[in-house]
Write a structure and sequence with these properties.
The protein is an alpha+beta fold. It contains 24 helices and 17 strands. The N and C termini lie far apart (about 85 Å).
């Protein structure tokens, strides 16, 4: 009984699919257009409100059902009702109807609703141009190579739909329209390239797009497991390359991020710049050896910091590229920005891997770096006192000797380096250090700092990135979020702050060769690895190579590169006026070429019309008078009337042309100018042309 009630309901909601080839042209073109709109809108649905995604999905499904079932379109009142609800929900969600988010939301809704009143070609053209405008809005959120590929598919689909709308007769295949769209896009490609190279980069026009998809990597605080969860993210944090072919060893690749000095028992946070002991002045920073010059391209992180290579005291020639940002070096040697990084950012700097930093003598402000919260991790504090007092050497040792003792303890006492140590409770250091001994880098760093502070040694945690991918891509080293790392610093009298990385005691390959732990792969990735273990690595490297070239050549094409291009053309000191001069000159040359093309193309005709005229002229030679308005089938009837049985073969060729032009051919699609048809037509007329001449003369009036 239930099935008998459900089946009719399903049949009403989901009409029977007749097959793509059996759909009327209007329904076929509508479904293709719906597919293009779905592809274009899909990236926005990931960031728009849930109600918007539901409305868009329901409206597109509704329109597809109307097309398949050949049902009438809804009334304008229904469309207006949906629009009013969408406006109200937009106001409720965003609090306004102005701005980027409300504007994109309403644009998606309007383009979707326009499909419900698709009654004429005029309506289709409105949808196409709304779609082109919607494609541009994607770059307000992301300018990545992946988004460029997605929008390229949208542009091709919209151009194909536009070509179909200008083919009103017959049932032209979608692939044929797609080839025309591709050809038109290729013809426009040179002009697009010229405009990209020479169109002035004027702020803030080129600074509006921001990558809202940027991930939040490091933060200004740390809880147990925070870096381990970030290490599961294999996306790119930044790329860098070194000048003059000089490259550091993996154990020198420490990229300094937030420095965490305050501990409340559960979370580590940064100390304010006022409280942080100063490091400025020649006596507090010493640099040794030759510097490493490097260039860095950072992905959007939504954090106001620059994770530069330790130690980078000054920004190089790339500082002007920090347009809109103000970078300051904090007393704890962390580079701070005034705004979060929401767009790709390029920085040039010099680093001295060999350096000393911090006060040589106990300075004001060191006391908070010795403090521990009361009531937390009592067993670890007791172990620290017992460990030191039980060894006469350690009882009188300095900070370096104590750190070496902790290194040795970690290396021999059964600790395990893992991405999945499990959750820890209130006294997390007690559980890690004395019970489970399973942890990631932040577990080792936190325990190290807590024990050093228990011994009254100033210590703090530094978070950032360590290491890079093994093989550079196009000369660029890739540092991923999975390279996120936490280490420690302790203060040694007479030297200053000394880096300590206790992870190297239990997992030396993590530091010396940048071999980070791998997160568990999915089922598909595991299956691919079984077939070809290197395939995933090769595919990822290929994609990242293209992505890096996209970033360097396209997204980072700036005013400086424009002027460099003019210098290559021969201009000594390029200016905006000379750039405009070159651009106008090229536009004028392009316009002149277009005029020449139009003059030549004026002689051309529509291929169907040209064939139509040639057939009319050949029939006139046979003495068969036909009008210019008559279709091939009408001309076939006139051939039978005038020529009788000898003209049957000729009449059949004309009927075949009529079927090809206006009907649905049974075989593969062919064009009107098919040479095989013209050869058959000439063969049918060759035997009739000679005797037709006297007949034509007899029919002429005296």
């Amino acid at each position: 009984m239930a099935l008998t009630l459900v089946d009719p309901l399903v049949a009403r909601v989901l009409p029977r699919w007749p097959g793509w080839q059996h759909l009327p042209r209007e329904a076929r073109d509508t479904l293709f257009q719906l597919g293009v709109i779905t592809w274009t809108v899909a990236p926005h649905l990931l960031r728009l409100p849930l109600w918007c995604s539901l409305i868009v999905g329901c409206v597109l499904f509704w329109r597809a059902r109307l097309a398949v079932a050949n049902l009438p379109l809804p009334s304008r009142w229904a469309i207006v009702a949906v629009l009013c609800v969408s406006v109200a929900l937009t106001w409720w969600t965003e609090g306004t109807l102005m701005g980027k988010e409300p504007g994109v939301t309403m644009l998606v809704i309007l383009m979707t609703l326009k499909m419900l009143e698709l009654r004429a070609r005029r309506d289709a053209l409105v949808v196409f141009f709304l779609g082109f405008f919607l494609v541009l809005t994607h770059f307000l959120y992301s300018q990545s190579l992946a988004m460029a590929v997605v929008t390229l598919g949208s542009v091709w689909g919209l151009l194909t739909g536009l070509v179909l709308a200008h083919m009103p007769v017959g049932r032209p295949p979608i692939l044929q329209a797609g080839r025309v769209a591709t050809t038109a896009a290729l013809w426009a490609l040179p002009l697009m390239a010229v405009l990209f190279v020479l169109f002035p980069r004027i702020a803030p026009l080129w600074g509006v797009p921001q990558d809202a998809a940027g991930r939040t990597g490091l933060s200004g605080s740390l809880r147990m497991g925070g870096v381990a969860s970030l290490a599961n993210d294999d996306s790119i944090a930044f790329r860098l390359r070194f000048a003059d072919g000089r490259e550091p060893t993996p154990d020198m690749l420490y990229f300094r991020g937030p420095v965490l000095s305050l501990f409340d028992g559960r979370e580590w946070t940064r100390m304010s710049s006022v409280m942080t002991p100063p490091v400025h002045g020649r006596a507090e920073v010493q640099l040794f050896g030759a510097p490493l010059a490097y260039e860095m391209t950072l992905e959007p992180s939504r954090l106001p910091l620059l994770p530069l290579l330790e130690f980078s005291p000054e920004l190089g020639d790339g500082a002007p590229q920090l347009q809109g940002y103000v970078a300051n070096l904090r007393p704890d040697l962390q580079w701070q920005l005034n705004l979060p990084i929401t767009d790709r950012l390029r920085v040039q700097a010099q680093a001295w891997p060999l350096h000393r930093q911090g006060p040589r003598h106990d300075a004001t402000g060191m006391e908070p770096l010795r403090q521990l919260p009361r009531g937390f991790n009592p067993r670890t504090l007791a172990w620290a006192q017992q460990f030191r007092s039980g060894d006469p050497v350690l009882a009188q040792a300095d900070a370096r000797t104590l750190a070496a003792a902790l290194y040795a303890h970690v290396g021999r006492d059964g600790f395990t380096y893992t991405l999945e140590p499990g959750a820890y409770g209130r006294d997390s250091v007690d559980e890690f250090w004395l019970d489970r001994k399973l942890g990631f880098c932040e577990h080792f760093a936190v325990a190290f700092v807590v024990i050093m502070r228990a011994w009254d040694v100033p210590a703090r945690i530094v978070t950032g990135y360590q290491g890079a991918d093994k093989d550079p891509v196009d000369g660029w080293w890739i540092v991923r979020n999975s390279h996120a790392h936490a280490w420690a610093e302790f203060w040694q009298p007479g030297e200053g702050w000394v880096r300590a990385d206790p992870t190297s005691a239990v997992a030396p390959e993590r530091i010396r060769r940048s071999v980070q732990l791998q997160a568990p792969r999915g089922i598909v990735a595991q299956a691919i690895e079984r077939v070809n273990p290197a395939l995933l690595t090769e595919v990822r490297a290929m994609w990242e190579r293209f992505d890096n070239r996209w970033n360097q050549w396209i997204l980072n094409y700036s005013r400086g590169k424009q002027f460099g291009f003019l210098e290559w053309l021969g201009f000594e000191s390029p200016t905006w006026a000379e750039l405009a001069y070159v651009l106008v000159l090229l536009i004028a040359a392009t316009a002149s070429a277009g005029v020449v093309w139009a003059l030549w193309d004026r002689q051309r005709q529509d291929p169907w019309q040209r064939l139509h005229n040639r057939v009319q002229a050949r029939l006139a030679e046979l003495g068969v008078p036909v009008g210019a308005h008559e279709a091939p089938r009408a001309r076939a009837m006139r051939v039978r009337e005038v020529l009788g049985p000898p003209g049957e073969a000729l009449a059949k060729t004309l009927e075949a042309l009529d079927n090809q032009r206006y009907g649905r051919p049974q075989g593969p699609p062919a064009t009107a100018v098919d040479r095989r048809w013209w050869a058959a037509f000439k063969a049918a007329t060759s035997g009739l042309l000679a005797p037709a001449a006297p007949r034509a003369r007899r029919q002429q009036p005296h």
